[in-house]
Write a structure and sequence with these properties.
Rossmann fold; cobalamin biosynthesis; Cobyric acid synthase; alpha/beta
Length: about 475
């Protein structure tokens, strides 16, 4: 077994991207590499070939290794449904719903499953690069931990600690992590990386030397800020709006609801010159300037639809439609556009039926059976190809002959719906806009011209840039020597 684990002084210090970058570095060197994250928490999931769910970051890391994603790479995935509850996914399959306190108290029971997945990956590869979660310095969560030091100790995997200098306080965060850890946990940490430095690294040299002296950890380098990381799919944070150029022709407004899921569906559109994505936060109206309103997926469709109405966005949306604007709903957003959402079994809470937004003549019944699969096909109106995936609980049926299906899957299934005038549409297929022809067809419908960019190639270029920057900035041989 040869493995190394990247942990961080906090959330969002760059663990996921650095794991992906190292996967590509070592894959480029001819090694068989696999990513692994024992426990992840995210509503942005990817679907494996065998129909399982894993965190979106692990799918990107698998791409960096030039292999297909597997449920082995993320054996425990928590998908938050409220501030206190989450759906628990084990080896890609839903195993129930737990309160946060119940999971924290019982998570050690998942360790055998985690270790089995890890050892299987080790048997298939030259090197496994493990990503931690949050921070091991959260000592209140140490007992029963399977995400950070609990896993590292159980699997005897050496750890490299990552600190983020861009947010400030990197010396204190690395030194503080060293100070609060149990001595046996601390012994597993063999080195550190300082991430996201803007400017001259020599100015930080005395701080770097202090961290080495204080912690006794080997300094493995300072990684500069890498602009192209913004081209990579983000798992945990919603991207910031980017100012568009004067050439932009359409604005897509995206209302941000509390349980938004798979917000990376617009990543490919984000890179288009003639598109401006505007994310609408609570308290803000849907802008009258928007050409398209996009309703994203949701982990709690009924609760998010109720939130949508409390914000007054349903009134804004009705005005948008009266002005001739376009609306697109994906997954939970598609369900919201219909006439009714019926939850007879209380999948999302108490059994109930609520009215939808009434923009498509479809009705949805939520069901316990979860549809998880990769899918491909074409849109019926223009035969443009797509390739994506489905993750949803529920069946949506068209309730009037005037509403046509939107897509035909290669297995013969019809999915989605589009209004007679073509202005309101929705479906269940995530990543619908990734393929160049499909994206161009929608932009043409909405009144913009596509740049014709290849989204997959764009991600590949960003991965190579991250890898080459890591090769030149970090002690890669030192990292490899730490792995065992």
């Amino acid at each position: 077994m040869t493995a190394i684990m990247l942990q961080g002084t906090g959330s969002d210090v760059g663990k996921s991207v650095l794991t992906a970058g190292l996967c590509r570095v070592f894959a480029n060197r001819g090694l068989t590499v696999r990513p692994f994250k024992p426990q992840n928490m995210s509503n942005n999931a990817a679907v494996t070939v065998d129909g399982g769910e894993i965190g979106r970051a692990q799918a990107l890391q698998a791409q960096a290794c030039r292999i297909a994603p597997s449920t082995l790479m993320n054996p425990v995935l928590l998908k938050p449904e409220s501030d206190h509850t989450a759906q628990v996914i084990v080896r890609g399959r839903a195993k129930g719903h737990l309160h946060a306190s119940s999971f924290i108290g019982g998570r050690a029971a998942f360790l055998p499953e985690v270790l089995t997945a890890f050892r299987t990956l080790c048997s298939q590869s030259d090197l496994v690069i493990v990503e931690g979660a949050g921070s091991p310095a959260e000592i209140n969560l140490r007992q029963g931990d399977i995400a950070n030091m609990g896993f590292a100790r159980a699997a005897n995997v050496p750890v490299v600690m990552i600190g983020d200098i861009d947010r400030g306080g990197v010396i204190a965060s690395l030194a503080g992590t060293h100070a609060v850890l149990d001595p046996d946990d601390r012994e597993l940490i063999k080195g550190f990386i300082v991430n996201r430095l803007r400017g001259d690294a020599s100015i930080f040299q005395s701080g770097y030397d202090f961290i080495e002296k204080f912690t006794g950890w080997k300094g493995l380098g300072v990684l500069p800020w890498i602009d192209s990381i913004r081209e990579l799919p983000s798992e945990d944070s919603i991207p910031e709006d980017v100012d568009c150029s004067a050439a932009s022709r359409i604005e897509i407004a995206v209302p941000l609801m509390p349980r938004i899921a798979n917000f990376d569906d617009l990543d490919a559109l984000e890179g288009e010159t003639h598109v401006k994505i505007t994310r609408i936060r609570p308290g803000q109206p849907l802008p009258a300037s928007a050409h398209v309103v996009f309703l994203p997926g949701s982990k709690a469709t009924i609760a998010d639809l109720q939130f949508f109405r409390r914000q007054g966005w349903d009134i804004d949306l009705a005005g948008h439609v009266r002005r001739g604007g376009y609306v697109f709903g994906l997954c939970g957003g598609y369900q919201m556009l219909g006439q009714t959402i019926n939850d007879p079994d209380g999948i999302e809470g108490n059994p109930t039926t609520i009215p939808g937004l009434g923009l498509l003549e479809v009705d949805t019944v939520l069901t316990r059976d979860k549809q998880i699969n990769q899918t491909s096909g074409m849109t019926l109106s223009d035969s443009a190809r797509f390739s994506g995936y489905e993750i949803h609980c529920g069946e949506t049926v068209r309730s009037h002959h005037r509403v046509m299906p939107l897509i035909r899957c290669d297995d013969g299934r019809l999915d989605g719906a589009i209004s007679p005038d073509g202005r309101i549409a929705g479906c269940y297929v995530h990543r619908l806009f990734d393929m160049t022809g499909q994206r161009a067809a929608w932009l043409d419908r909405w009144g913009a011209r596509s740049d014709g960019l290849d989204y997959t190639a764009r991600v590949e270029r960003a991965l190579e840039t991250v890898a080459s920057t890591m090769e030149s900035s970090l002690d890669i041989e030192g990292l490899l020597a730490i792995a065992r």
